[in-house]
Write a structure and sequence with these properties.
740 residues; alpha+beta; four-stranded antiparallel sheet; 64% helix; elongated
Amino acid sequence: MATILYRLGRFAFRRRHFVALFWVALLTLVGVGAASAPAAGTTSFSVPGTEAQKAFDLLEQRFPGTSADGATARVVFKAPAGEKISDSANKAIVTKAVDDLADGSEVTSVADPFKSNAVSKNGTIAYASVSYKVSGMELKDSSRDALEDTAKQAQDAGLTVEVGGDALQTTPETGSTEIIGIAVAAVVLVITFGSLIAAGLPLLTALIGVGIGVSAITGLASALDLGSTTSTLAMMIGLAVGIDYALFVVSRYRAELADGRDREEAAGRAVGTAGSAVVFAGLTVVIALVGLSVVNIPMLTKMGVAAAGTVAIAVFIALTMIPALLGYAGRKIKPAGQKSRFLGGARAAKKADKPNMGTRWASFVVRRPIAVLLLGVVGLGAAAIPAGSLELGLGDDGSQPTSTTQRRAYDLLSDGFGPGFNGPLMIAVDAKDSDAPKAAVTEVRDRIKGLGDVQSVSPANFNKAGDTATITVVPDSKPSSVTTEDLVHSIRDAGADIKADTDATVLVTGTTAMNIDVSQKLNDALIPYLILVVGLAFLLLIVVFRSILVPLKAALGFLLSVMAALGAVVAVFQWGWFASLLGVEETGPVMSMMPIFMVGVVFGLAMDYEVFLVTRMREAYVHGEKASQAVVTGFKHGARVVTAAAVIMMAVFAGFIGSSESMIKMIGFGLAIAVFFDAFIVRMAIVPAVLALLGKRAWWLPKWLDRALPNVDVEGEGLKALSDADAKADPDEKKELVRA
């Protein structure tokens, strides 16, 4: 592989005009496609195989035109202090609001609170339910504006009015901190390279790669039903790895220049060595992201595949566009150890003989590996303790900040009708195979009434054929409580007995039931996903490092970092530690998909640092250095760059903490803290300590397996003879490039 990438790097350097034109043309093409593509329509959320999804599908079939997955809104009215909502003046305001809401072109029905018994027992709170033909993401802005205007008019008339439901669902905003993250990355790159031009190359190529990836997602959003979070995730990961991959190639290029090689040769060797690490690091990320498809949740699969595509683009750009831009930069890119005069080049030259920080740190770890190993493991173990209290769930209006109208509507409904009112359960009864459908439905209602934690059970609503009915059940407890989850399971258990007695099928659905099913599905998929992703990456790393213990150590270190990161997420988003500093206004259960999502993404990113850092050690070891000295050599050449890459990745992920979407905020924080734990504790402390303790045994591989594995030559062992032959074959062109 190193030989192929070496030739690719030299080709891109020599044919820089063609390569640059290709990427610019591709960016322009997908940009035009994204601009002219139809706007994304509904972003349906389905979970195949779950009971809640089966019920939705049944209702779509048996109640045609009712839009079971259509947007809903609850306009909540509260009378002024000392008054009743049924007082003539207040009732007139509510009635007018209901009439105005019914005029909407996308509205299918509006329930008058005085006719649908939607007034609280104390008579102070009432709500009007609004149903729409389309989902919340597909709802037109004019419909949302009409909803908000109606609420404002009623509020101006003297009532307290708040609006809840998914009708107000909008595309999340990432916030200005995303720009701050990119600015931090730019500063780190300038400090690392000591050159504005060298620092600008990774930023430029990363932005081009993200631009291509996000534009492609935007262009395909309507056709493939891609949600807004799909492009956000692709941007988040693509930007981070795009900068990092380019950073490693540019850093290796400067190191090759410092060894006295001409610029084309240095570009070829940089792509042949660091580029090999980029390819395998990118493969681990792609495996982890595409592997999310095993969960069988379409939305999660699309997010993973789209982000994986953006990572693949980042890899190709690092291998081709970076050497092309290095050719354009020429002598403006300084060899390693040299900085521009503007950034203190003269002072750097005086300190050239002093061991760098990476060398000093690695030497310390090699001398005291047991102490460093114990300190790192104990520290991560302590950070992971909160993960033992992990509670999973999917957010509803109750998890919104108190400043939002959705949260205030949620609280008003809880006060007026009980905490379970915000999470009603919809029971679908399929009595098509029953001899007495109405009797079967009556038995279902009676059985549910006899269960605990049930506040109310609505009358059955039959379809035209009379063979299917829906029943609404309001629990006593709030939607995210364990008690409500137990009620869902109790109803389903009772449904099995009813099926045996009446041949009627009972299905529990609704937002609350769907959340419970999604959480269960994600929990069930976690172990198979771990086995798949870690297993494939383990085999890949065996090929890269030609070792058994090094990949095993990499996987165990990843488990430490991801558990510590989950502990930090629980501490902040569930327990509320430092929540105000991060803009977390409401604590509660951790998002259900967070553990499996963090496992996938963090594993891929963790292997990045493992590959970049340890391949340098492997390279030194195969060239004759002792195992302990190879650890120091690897840190001498790689620690500074890995540190810069980690800081950049943390800055980019932390930038998404400013998002208005709680899921994006949690993902940004979780990935940022995971990169910190993995890069600075696992890879920078635990890895060298373990390798120092193992010595040459770290690179042991059974002879039979060594013969069976393909030789990918990540260390670039085969480049020496090849580069010498190429140099002899075309000496005039070489001189020309040196002068350039």
